[in-house]
Amino acid sequence: MSSQTITVIKGDGIGPSIVEAAIQVLDKVGCNFNYEYVEAGLTALETTGELLPQTTLDAIARNKITLKGPLTTPVGEGFTSINVTLRKKFNLYSNVRPVISFKGTKARYENIDIITVRENTEGMYSGAGQIVKNEGELAEAMSVVTREGSERIVEFAFELARREKRKKVTIVHKANILKSTSGLFLKTAREVALRYPDIQASEMIVDNACMQLVMNPQQFDVIVTTNLFGDILSDLCAGLVGGLGMAPGANIGKDCAIFEAVHGSAPDIAGKNLANPSSVILASVQMLEYLGMKDKAEKILAALTDVIASGDRTTRDLGGSHGTTDFTAAMLERL
Fold first, then answer.
1. Which CATH number belongs to the domain containing residue 144 in this structure?
2. Domain range spanning residue 181?
3. Any idea where the Isopropylmalate dehydrogenase-like domain is (predicted)?
4. Which of 235, 306, 317, 326 is an active site residue?
5. Is 235 one of the catalytic residues?
6. Which end of the chain, C or N, has fewer beta carbons within 10 A?
7. Are 208 and 252 members of one domain?
8. Active site residue 58
C-alpha cells in the first residue's frame, strides 16, 4: 500500500509552529504520511504575489487531503476570504466542528460533546451579491439557499450521527422570520429526517439555540444548520469547552477535505513559542478518522487528554506556563 500524501499549508502567524507540532505527533504515532508543503495567505502573498497560488490549488486537488494552519486574509483587499474561496472552489459543502470537554482546561462546563455540522457554501455567509449604493448610504447582500444544498448537508449530519452512534440531531433555523431561505432549509431538513427513524430529530430557532447552549449544553448532540448560523454557533460551542484553542474544523466535500485550526493566526504571539497546538492536533485526529485510521486517532486523543488533565507542560491558555515545544514534547512522550 503506497503511503498517503497530505498537502500541508502551514499558514501565517503561529501557524507554522502549531502545524509542525501536529506533524511530529502524526509521525510519532506511525502514520507514514508524505507531506507536500504549499503556501497560502500572507506568506504566499509575500513570496508569490498571490494569496492563493495556483500551485497550492493544484496540490489540494491532487492529494485530496489537506492539513491547514490559520491564514490571514488582508483587510480591504478584493478577496473576501481565503477559506470561503477554498470551500467554493473544491465544493467543500460540509463544515464539521466537534467540541469535547477536556479535564484541566479553564472551561465553564464538563461533559460537553457536541458536533456542529454547518452548510459551507450557500446562504448569507457566502458573500453573494454584495453591493454598496448611494455613495455608501445603502448596502445589500444576497442569501441563496437551495434544496440540493440543504438536503446534502442534513443528510451528511444524519449519516454522521448514525456512524458515530449519536442519538439526536437538532436542526437549527430561523424559519419563523426568514420564511423563504430558512423555511426551505427547514422543510428540506424535515423530509431528510424522516429517512432516519433511528435518530431523534428536533428543531430549534437559532436565538433559542444560543440561549439553550449556554444554559443547558448537555442536551445537544449533533447540530445541523445553515452557513452563517453555523459560523456563530460553532464558536459559541468552542467557548463551552475553553475557547478556539481547543476547536478543530473539517471542510468536507465529495472527494476532497481540508482539516484546520479554526482560530486566527495570532500575529501578536507568533514566533514566541507560546501557542497551544491542540486545535491542529485535534484537526489531525479528525483527518485520521476521515481516513479510517481510527486506532491512531484514538491514541493521539488519549495522549492529548492526559497531557491537559495532568497539567504536564501545558500552555498559558490552559493554566500552565509552558510553550508550544514543551507541550508537544509532553505529547510525544506519551505516544
1. 3.40.718.10
2. 108-240
3. 5-331
4. 235
5. yes
6. N
7. no
8. no
Catalytic residue among 187, 207, 254, 294: 207
Q: What pLDDT was estimated at residue 289?
A: 97
- Rounded to an integer, what distance in angstroms lies between the CA atom of residue 314 and that of residue 199? 38
| Set 10, 174, 296, 299: catalytic member | 174
Cell of residue 199, nine digits? 435518530
Instruction: Out of 68, 231, 296, 312, pick the active-site residue.
Output: 231
Residues 197 and 304 in one domain: no
Q: Grid coordinates standing for 94? A: 460540509
Distance of CA 225 to the CA centre of its chain: 14
Query: Which residue is catalytic, options 93, 125, 221, 296?
Result: 125
- pLDDT score of 256 more than 80: yes
Residue 77: pLDDT over 60: no
Could you report the per-residue pLDDT of 86-127, keeping only the tens digit for each? 999 999 999 999 999 999 998 999 999 999 999 999 999 888
Residue 81 has what pLDDT?
Answer: 82
Under 8 Å between Cβ of 250 and 83: no
Catalytic: 133?
Answer: no
Beta pairing class for 131-133 and 248-252: unpaired
